[in-house]
UniProtKB/TrEMBL annotation:
Pathway(s) where this gene product acts: Amino-acid biosynthesis; L-methionine biosynthesis via de novo pathway; L-methionine from L-homocysteine (MetE route): step 1/1
Protein's name according to its UniProt entry: 5-methyltetrahydropteroyltriglutamate--homocysteine S-methyltransferase
CDD domains named among the record's database cross-references: CIMS_C_terminal_like (cd03311), CIMS_N_terminal_like (cd03312)
Superkingdom of origin: Eukaryota
Top EC class for this record: transferase
Positions with a binding annotation for Zn(2+) 1: H647, C649, E671, C733
Organism placement in taxonomy: Eukaryota, Viridiplantae, Streptophyta, Embryophyta, Tracheophyta
Family the UniProt entry places it in: Belongs to the vitamin-B12 independent methionine synthase family.
Domain Cobalamin-independent methionine synthase MetE C-terminal/archaeal: 432-755
Enzyme Commission no: 2.1.1.14
UniProt-annotated binding residues for 5-methyltetrahydropteroyltri-L-glutamate: K18, N116, R521, C522, W567
Organism per entry: Cucurbita moschata (Winter crookneck squash)
KW S-adenosyl-L-methionine (keyword) present: no
Binding site for L-methionine: I437, G438, S439, E490, D605
Amino acid sequence: MASHIVGYPRMGPKRELKFALESFWDGKSSAEDLKKVAADLRSSIWKQMADAGIKYIPSNTFSYYDQVLDATATLGAVPPRYGWTGGEIGFDTYFSMARGNASVPAMEMTKWFDTNYHFIVPELGPEVKFSYASHKAVEEYKEAKALGVETVPVLIGPVSYLLLSKPAKGVDKNFVLLSLLNKILPIYKEVVSDLKAAGASWIQFDEPTLVMDLGSDKLKAFSDAYSELESTLSGLNVLVETYFADIPDEAYKTLTALKGVTAYGFDLVRGTKTFDLIKGGFPKGKFLFAGVVDGRNIWANDLATSVNILEELAGIVGKDNLVVSTSCSLLHTAVDLVNETKLDNEIKSWLAFAAQKLVEVNALAKALAGNKDTAFFAANAAAHASRKSSPRVTNEAVQKAAAALKGSDHRRATNVSTRLDAQQKKLNLPILPTTTIGSFPQTVELRRVRREYKANKISEDEYVKAIKEEINKVVKLQEELDIDVLVHGEPERNDMVEYFGEQLSGFAFTVNGWVQSYGSRCVKPPIIYGDVSRPKPMTVFWSTTAQSMTSRPMKGMLTGPVTILNWSFVRVDQPRFETCYQIALAIKDEVEDLEKAGINVIQIDEAALREGLPLRKSEQAFYLDWAVHSFRITNVGVQDTTQIHTHMCYSNFNDIIQSIIDMDADVITIENSRSDEKLLSVFREGVKYGAGIGPGVYDIHSPRIPSTEEIADRINKMLAVLEKNVLWVNPDCGLKTRKYTEVNPALKNMVAAAKLLRKEL
Ligand code: GLN
Ligand code: ZN
């Protein structure tokens, strides 16, 4: 029985790589300094895995920015605008592709499957001349070997690489990316030959796209690719690794018939049906890498249950051919529990970060080999028992209330047009009403105030005074700008999820539980460990304070249940929807308290609703159903005259438009600034959206200040498709990352554009 790790976080236990990268980018340290930090991180990770007893240790899972960009560098697929002229790709070209430079913007970034990690999308076309332009894979293999650690080099598989690419600018949108297979395979052969020559005996190809709903043409590309590679791969053990979901039947057949491949890796945490496929037949003599330790969460594995699963699998494939593994790369979990100084011991005993997961994988492998570490297993069982019975986890009243929601529907009693009429009577807004999404610029001073309050360096009175002053400044500014529906600016919030999590029961926070989001950027998701409830109002004080400063409507500002869920580490001892319903009930209480306190417009942000959409189509309807239901629960109890807004951070919702309509919000503001066309096409195709809608009229992600004409032009485009009495005018997201010198003129032009058009309507 052997053990394997699919991949490991690169940032380091205290984000060492982040700081080294940012210092290098700022010109404060040299390339050599950066390389040294990176090499130290790699060596400590390899040693840690070796010490933990892991047999198959991955290499080439380190990256200075992104593993897909590394593959692009290996293939020499540098878009021409970066001016690369050949030779080994260095930091200049590499980081220009990742982040852009003074004259050229970065390559596009997009979400890695349904994770919060973002990869750099390869831009390909018939003209691309591929060449072996980065020897990183073989260099890292040799580097580990020199340290006395034998590793399994990991490459992104050729078919997944192409399926994750997009046609470059100027290339026909319908260009078949898979037609490039015969051009990239020669490079893959060179890489494999190099690795072989360096002494590698195993190699891992990550082909996660195999879990998607792929048609037969795409599946055939896998068969073709590995047949072509077969002779080069001969003499090596070859693992094809899949993760993030069940593997569909057809894909399973294709995978297990691939030429030259000797081992298959499966995510058995998310892929519960894959188990049945394996039971139904597994090729003789091949290896099964069983991903039973969750790479996407922070909970300690249930070792006893895993042993049972592994025993059953061993019965099918034979003990010698079974390898215990993680469900996916540990990139998607936090790094090391050792650095958590603020979590209490009880909660800590329930958790396992990447470093602890290594130990779990090895303990499982040893147990299967008849060498069970009984003390370790006993401690694990005790931790699981304590979590089940802990009063901190269970709140019976909440459980009951959430259970009562299942099966029933929750919807406001009247339809949206009736409600909009009632609201208009109360709010008396002009046509094309203007508003913003919530946050105003977060100045250094503001961050200092929050930090010092948290650290007890300033008193509550001083803190409240400072925040009130800030709110007052933001309110006055909006009045001067003549914005119609105001916001308080969210100066008291560090993060839109953390702020609520800190005030709800059932949440815990880490100090170093960082997960890479993209490049040097990391997020620190809260941990939802118990039943969620709201001990007391969370935003009422600030919203009413803000409302008291103006006679214009002040929007109450909340984060929605689905977004809180999707941006947290969620408990796995109950279905996700149950946790979501619990959060929904807590937000519902807050909405009703805001209404009672005289707040007539309440925005419930669902920035991350789309993010939770399952990868497989067959599972999407169920998710959308409970997600949308959760949102409706939050505001089912308000009067017709209370206007409910929601906000979403993307515009490509064409495929989930029905769910957006089902949310039954009165007004939705959405990000739109990068593609009017895509969004508007939905409505052009006849989708009826009776609610108010505010497609962002300018991009807040850029420092650029849009002119009045430009904004008016965009509003006009929208008016061609949408009715004038439903259209709102707003930026496309919160303003917290911008400076006042950008926000003031941009909003001024936005209001001017709205006024200009009102005259014409
Ligand atoms: N209300 C939040 C803000 O303005 C929304 C942020 C978001 O959509 N990501 O900051
Ligand atoms: Zn947004």
